[in-house]
Specification:
With 147 residues, this protein is mainly alpha-helical. It is built from six helices and two strands, in the order ααααββαα.
Length: 147
């Protein structure tokens, strides 16, 4: 193993930039270390440097609990705690972060009786139908292959 040279900063392999110092447990984030923002079309997202709209949507929906939140709101508004219960008691910080992201994307809105799907959120929920049909066909193919 090569010796570390204290006069040369360690780099993370990306264009020679110095790797950030790791945060200690319980240490607050530096102001420049903001939490990951919600995906938006036109900005680089997971899987797309150009931020193609479908890739931004898939990045948003692929975040932990995002699809489940949309699914649980399909029958109407839910207060925060009721939504948390339906989502198997996910942490309040994760639920809050997802709700912020889904609100920014115009999928969820805040109502008098809690959180609800917006009109755009309802349109997105309608797109679950063809995905569900595809998943059923996939499951059928998988069962046939397992015999």
């Amino acid at each position: 193993m090569p010796k570390k040279n204290p006069s040369r900063p360690h780099t993370d392999g990306e264009e020679g930039r110095a790797a950030p110092e790791p945060r200690r447990v319980g240490e607050p984030r530096a102001s420049s270390e903001a939490p990951r923002s919600a995906p938006r079309p036109g900005r680089a997202v997971r899987g797309s440097a150009t931020g193609r709209p479908i890739m931004a949507l898939l990045d948003l929906l692929g975040r932990r609990w995002a699809l489940r939140i949309i699914w649980e709101l399909r029958e109407g508004p839910l207060p925060f705690r009721a939504l948390q219960e339906r989502c198997e008691r996910m942490s309040s910080s994760v639920l809050n972060q997802r709700l912020v992201e889904l609100r920014e994307a115009g999928i969820v809105c805040s109502r008098e009786h809690g959180y609800a799907l917006s009109d755009e959120g309802r349109r997105l929920l309608e797109a679950y139908g063809p995905l569900g049909e595809w998943a059923d066909r996939w499951a059928g193919r998988s069962r046939k292959g397992a015999r």
